[in-house]
Amino acid sequence: MRAPVVHIHDLPTDHVGPKGSDTFGATLAQVGEALGTKNIGAMYVQVDPGKRAFPFHNHLANDEMFIILEGTGTYRFGEHTFDIKAGDICHAPKGGKDTAHQIINTGQTTLRYLGLSTLQDPEVVEYPDSDKFSVLGIHPGEDYHSRYFGHIGRRSDAYDYWDGEDQ
């Protein structure tokens, strides 16, 4: 039987973000995976000052919630921004650009939060700042990057529905 209790600091971590980036980077621990949850995703996230864990994005399949544990930052949500601090809880419902979201560490210390989500699979994610999208499916993998199978593209790469369909 898998233990129904884990300690955040005992979980293996992955680093996300481009190497050497001054903008993006975070350390993640997959809490839900460690607990064996099937319908609730949970991830512990640590973000250094001045950085963001992920680009501004919205989900078409999953709702998310973020519980700020330590530090301060800005919650970018649609066209609005909100100051956040330890004890705050942020919601990011599935939807279009008006639900796009991003957490930015604007403080002087590491920002730590727990991200919770529904676990609908597959998922479509839009990135309004870069006009990208991704279609993702979860599958077994050794780290954060290899757990997802999918495609990332730009809307400008779009094809007509009937393109190549001769039969």
List the keywords:
four-stranded antiparallel β-sheet, mainly beta, 3% helix, globular, 167 residues, six-stranded antiparallel β-sheet, 44% strand
3D architecture notes:
This protein is an all-beta fold and 167 residues long. Helices cover 3% and strands 44% of the residues. It has 1 helix and 13 strands. The strands form 3 sheets. It has a 6-stranded antiparallel sheet. The radius of gyration is 17 Å and the shape is globular.
What does this entry show, briefly?
The chain has 167 residues and is mainly beta.
Major sheet: order of its strands? 1-2-3-10-5-8
Low-confidence spans: pLDDT under 50, at least 5 residues? Answer: none
Radius of gyration from the alpha-carbon trace, in angstroms: 17 Å
> What is the residue-mean pLDDT, rounded to a whole number?
91
- Distance between the ends: 52 Å
* Main beta-sheet annotation: 6 strands, antiparallel
Helix content: under 10%
The share of residues in extended strands comes to 35-45%
Category by helix and strand content = mainly beta
Principal-axis shape equals: globular
Number of DSSP strand runs: 13
- The helix count comes to 1
- Pattern of helices and strands: EEHEEEEEEEEEEE
Task: Walk me through the topology.
Blueprint: E1 13-16, E2 26-30, H1 31-35, E3 40-47, E4 58-59, E5 64-70, E6 72-77, E7 80-85, E8 89-92, E9 101-104, E10 111-118, E11 123-127, E12 132-138, E13 148-154
